[in-house]
Amino acid sequence: MHLELRHLRSLRAIHEQGGLARAAEVLNLTQSALSHQIKALEEQAGVELFLRKTKPLRLSGAGMRLLRTAEQVLPMIAAAEAEFRAVELGRAGRLHVAMECHHCFDWLLPVLDQFRRAWPEVDLDIRTSLALKALPALVRGQVDMVISSDPEEMEGVAYQPLFDYAPTMVLAANHPLIAKGYAEPQDFADQTLITYPMDRARLDVFSQFLDPAGVEPAHHRVIEQTAVALMLIASGRGVAVMPDWVLRAHAANPELAMLPLGPQGMLRRLYAAVRSDDLNQPFMVHVLRLARTEPMRMMRALSQP
């Protein structure tokens, strides 16, 4: 039996309208064309689908079973068609985000919260488990955006600049290094360095500062939470390097001090990596705009007394 969606739609329309004439009008068919369609379907099925001597026209037992199939299948098809139309119009899609920076949660979550309210039809998710292999996952289509400060040239990937930040040393307020006014790589050689649980190559303090100078900290301790790390630092249990926008919220803490890396400080840029083919998607344009403006607004708010 060769069953098509038009057969299901016709069967449902006849049942709902109670006759061929009104059903044909609803389906934008001639009554003759609809009658021939139903007759051909009955010949394929080998059974009658309607009790033709009744008014209004009623379904037979076989017709009722086919109607139940229509009532299950047609709403699913309608939902899929609506979703495809939304995708075509740019209202729907998928935005799965991966991060190569542990601390990016602080500004990214408010951005995505705003985004989901504006684009409720977009499938939104954060894929933290892919953090160490995020860019290859982007190329493979497993995620749709990667937040990274280390762009790598990859075919089909575009890097959109978001904002600049300064990796900054944070240490106890009574630390002897404060008198120097800035930190050099050698200053970490006798320190316990506290970092987030990330691959060493993704940590600015190693990739941009210590490794090029060939310096290793005396000890390396991994802490998951910023608040815990800062408590240990205030207690003299170690030092850390964090983005300046993370530390602005703690600038008034009298137990902590901040030093630039090097006499001139260090400046890094955060990027959103997306597939080139997705750049012009309306929802992608919007989330990129939010990712540039919302962190700046948050930083300005933190700078207010």
UniProtKB/TrEMBL annotation:
Any one biological process term the GO annotation gives: methionine biosynthetic process
CDD domains xrefs: PBP2_MetR
Cellular compartments annotated: Cytoplasm
Major localization listed first in the record, in broad terms: cytoplasm
Domain (HTH lysR-type) ranges: 3-60
One annotated GO molecular function: DNA-binding transcription factor activity
Record keywords, A-Z: Amino-acid biosynthesis, Cytoplasm, DNA-binding, Methionine biosynthesis, Transcription, Transcription regulation
One matching Pfam family: LysR_substrate
Listed GO CC annotations: cytosol
InterPro entries in UniProt: HTH-type_LysR_regulators, LysR_HTH_N, LysR_subst-bd, MetR_PBP2, WH-like_DNA-bd_sf, WH_DNA-bd_sf
Family recorded in the similarity comment: Belongs to the LysR transcriptional regulatory family.
Protein name: HTH-type transcriptional regulator MetR
Source species taxonomy: Bacteria, Pseudomonadati, Pseudomonadota, Alphaproteobacteria, Rhodobacterales
